[in-house]
Structures are given as C-alpha cells and as structure tokens.
C-alpha cells in the first residue's frame, strides 16, 4: 500500500465565485469528501486556495489489467464513473456479486455522480430509495456506503430470484413486480434498464459472471 505522501491527487485552484458545493457538483464528489481530503473544518474556502479533489487511481486496481482494458470507453460515465471502480470491486468481492453487474448498475443509475437525486427521490451513486437505504442501514449520500448497500441488496435479490436479469429488474422496479410477473415485468422503463445493464456487462472485460 502506498504511503499517504506518495498518493497523487487531482488538484483545483479556487476561483473568486466558487463555493464548496459548486466544486463538489462540478467534479462529482461529495462535500464531505472534499472537507476530509483537505482537512477543512467548515465549508468556507478562499480564492487561490489549491484543493485536492480526488485521488488519482492507478491502473493496477485490476491486477494485470489496466482500467481502460476492463472498462472500455463505450461504457458511459467516463472517469467520473471509473473513480468508483475500486470501491465497487471491493464490495462485489466482499458480498460475492459480479463486479460488472454492480458497476453497470451504478453507470445506469447515476453515471458515477454521487450527488444525484432523482425526481422519484432516489439518492446518490446507486440511486437507493430512502426506505431501502434505511433497511440496509446505509447513508445513500456517502458513495462507499451506497455501493456496499447496493451490493448487499443485489445479493439478496439474486438469492430470491436465482436469475441475474430478474435481480436487475427487481433493483429497478422492486421485487414485488418481478414476483407478480414471474420475470422481468412488461414495463418499458424496466425492460430498457435490464437491457442497458446487461449490455454494459457484456462490454466489461471481467470474468466473474
């Protein structure tokens, strides 16, 4: 593991009109992450202050494969999404769910934006509903918790349906509808969702599915 001093960071010089909230939106990170990374005790920032935005993830996350070999450019989200690959891989391995499915769900849900709130009230990187997040005991606004909660939820859905397309559909529209229709429901949004996730899965160069 690298010493803290040897880590590389994306840097940003604060402009006169900048706010911490605005910077967090610009780079797809949370205010809490920025405060922790820069040892800030309040959200007040100053002109010309150099902020660390995020750690630059090395290409050894996937051992003998580079990030771009595993996640090709055709997968939406770009670097904003790829920055969560390590956390997703860790949670996928911890909870024994396929990395490429968990990553593809994240991309389909938020394109890697941890600040996203949908018009239906889904929150964060994995777009968990408040009720689901409370059930899982996670804060959906904290990306690592959102990922870990989503991995556990996905594992429980697969245990219930024993079929990944059904589990993916249940993540989108809820398990009750999947049970009602005994498969992917005839709901256009859910059918497109499952197709998108499986399409991204097939493009990701990772062999655990």
From TrEMBL:
GO biological process terms held by the UniProt record: peptidoglycan metabolic process
Pfam families: LysM, SLT
SMART domains per the UniProt record, alphabetical: LysM
Domain LysM: 10-53
Listed GO MF terms: peptidoglycan lytic transglycosylase activity
GO cellular component, one term: membrane
Spans traversing the lipid bilayer: none
Listed PROSITE patterns: LYSM, TRANSGLYCOSYLASE
InterPro entries documented for this protein: LysM, LysM_dom_sf, Lysozyme-like_dom_sf, Transglyc_AS, Transglycosylase_SLT_dom_1
Family membership: Belongs to the transglycosylase Slt family.
Protein name: Transglycosylase SLT domain-containing protein
Origin species: Neobacillus citreus
Organism classification: Bacteria, Bacillati, Bacillota, Bacilli, Bacillales
